[in-house]
Amino acid sequence: MYGLICTHSLLHLLKMASGQLSRAEALACTGCRHACHVMLYSDTKSQLFRHIPIRHIILMQMRFDGWLGFPGGLVNLSEESLEEGLSRELLEEIGAAVPISVENHVESCYGPSSSSSSDLILHFYAKKLEEEQILDIERSAVSTAVDHGHEVLGMVRVPLYQMKDGGGLSSFLCHSFIKNARLQLVDGLLRFGLISAEELHTALGLSVETHK
Ligand code: GTP
Ligand code: MN
Ligand code: MN
Ligand code: MN
Ligand code: MN
Ligand code: MN
């Protein structure tokens, strides 16, 4: 019960902080550029060092610019829907066809304001796959994705465990993320119950300490 309330209030805070808009409101902005990114994840029974449960495989990528982000990209709404555009970007960036539908939409928000002339709206999706599908994606991201070694330097998994020496999720969260990808990750972890609010709170606290 306590954990549930905690998760809800954390999600509410995240929503307030990130300037969100509904999918319909976002699509109404015809002068905006739109980009879609997706958190692909699965359950796993595998263990690190044969005793630390990995629990979930969550895919992010090291981008060409050195920032971490999710696979996906800019969508051209005059030629494709948001979800068609995201599926096309996935083919380019991970070399695999992953059908994305409206049900996979999580949230949309304005990108952090920049000097660019038209506003950018960032759409976030999430899709749960079978572990075998995630392993296939990790292979195709290297072997068949046309963007491998160009736009994408490599896929990375998000560690969910917390080590006593400060390694694990807290040190992962200390990396540099593109735009609001770090917030999207934290939101996704909570929303889909991939980590408890308490564990996330601990990891976020440790990552702030390490960052000093
Ligand atoms: P090109 O094919 O070179 O145009 O790149 P792309 O279409 O793959 O676009 P990209 O993935 O770089 O995303 C477009 C915009 O979204 C950029 O301005 C990024 O700053 C932003 N962006 C990229 N990845 C993420 C992400 O994971 N989360 C968020 N919120 N924004 C992102
Ligand atoms: Mn080793
Ligand atoms: Mn791309
Ligand atoms: Mn991209
Ligand atoms: Mn693109
Ligand atoms: Mn491209």
From TrEMBL:
| Chief location of this protein within or outside the cell | nucleus
Q: Provide the cofactor list for this protein.
A: Co(2+)
Question: Its catalytic activity?
Answer: dIDP + H2O = dIMP + phosphate + H(+); IDP + H2O = IMP + phosphate + H(+); a 5'-end (N(7)-methyl 5'-triphosphoguanosine)-ribonucleoside in mRNA + H2O = N(7)-methyl-GDP + a 5'-end phospho-ribonucleoside in mRNA + 2 H(+)
EC numbers on record: 3.6.1.64
GO molecular function ontology, one term from the record: phosphodiesterase decapping endonuclease activity
Q: Which UniProt keywords apply?
A: Nucleotide metabolism, Nucleus, RNA-binding, Signal
Task: Supply one GO BP term.
Answer: nucleotide metabolic process
Q: Which PROSITE patterns match?
A: NUDIX
Segments forming domain Nudix hydrolase = 31-187
Q: Where is the signal peptide, in residue numbers?
A: 1-19
Q: Which SUPFAM superfamilies does the record cross-reference, listed alphabetically?
A: Nudix
User: A single GO CC term, please?
Assistant: nucleolus
Localization annotation: Nucleus, Nucleolus; Nucleus, Nucleoplasm
| Protein name as catalogued | U8 snoRNA-decapping enzyme
Which species is the source of this protein?
Knipowitschia caucasica
